[in-house]
Amino acid sequence: GFCTNLLLSQTPKHILAQTNNNTEIRCELRKEHAGVYWFRWSQERQNFEFLIFSNLLGKATYGANIMQDKFSVHGVSSHTSSSLHIRHLHASDNGTYYCSVSQSSQLLLGSGTQLVDVLPLPLKTTQAPRSKKPVRCVTKSKAAGKKG
């Protein structure tokens, strides 16, 4: 079975990333372990997918249909932390990522990190709504003040 556990804390909680960028998820381990598993929950596909297992020697075992050049794990030899590196982000990488260790036939899951992939937009497009928003807020508050 699976159960979430405070002995495995993940940072960050949320990642807002851009297509083709790389990212990293860190897992602090407060439990003795033989290695770290990484899983992804996909809301869209409604499945829990095994990505990679890295043992204490740093040897990686990948899940079925997982691209080995996309995922890598670092820092397991320190026994206290593990980092999942994800390269060349794509919309299909969206989901909640969990680090996990095995303990007495249970998999203890970390706190989870939600990855949201956003397409890069031209600079002008992203700046325009930002400058408009505060103006709208000011107008609304002035109108509310006059009514009162």
Structural features:
148 residues; alpha+beta; 8-stranded mixed sheet; 4-stranded antiparallel sheet; 1 helix; 12 strands; 17% helix; globular; transmembrane helix; Ig_V-set; signal; glycoprotein; membrane
Question: Describe it for me?
Answer:
With 148 residues, the chain is an alpha+beta fold. It is built from 1 helix and 12 strands, in the order ββββββββββββα. The protein has one helix spanning 123-147; strands at residues 2-4, 8-11, 14-18, 23-29, 35-42, 47-55, 60-62, 71-74, 81-86, 95-103, 106-109, 113-118. Strands 1, 3, 5, 6, 7, 10, 11 and 12 form an 8-stranded mixed beta sheet that branches. A 4-stranded antiparallel beta sheet has the order 2-4-9-8, with no helix packed on it. It is globular. The model is unreliable at 125-145 (pLDDT under 50).
Low-pLDDT segments, ≥5 res: 125-145
The succession of helices and strands, N to C, reads: EEEEEEEEEEEEH
Q: Which term fits the overall shape?
A: globular
SS elements, strand count: 12
Question: Alpha-carbon distance between the termini?
Answer: 58 Å
DSSP helix count? Answer: 1
User: Which radius of gyration do the C-alpha atoms yield?
Assistant: 20 Å
Percent strand: over 45%
For the residues shown, what is the average pLDDT? 80
Helix share bin: 10-25%
Q: What composes the largest sheet?
A: 8 strands, mixed
Structure class: alpha+beta
Write the layout of secondary structure elements.
Blueprint: E1 2-4, E2 8-11, E3 14-18, E4 23-29, E5 35-42, E6 47-55, E7 60-62, E8 71-74, E9 81-86, E10 95-103, E11 106-109, E12 113-118, H1 123-147
Parallel strand pairs: 1-11, 3-12
Antiparallel strand pairs: 2-4, 4-9, 5-6, 5-10, 6-7, 8-9, 10-11, 10-12
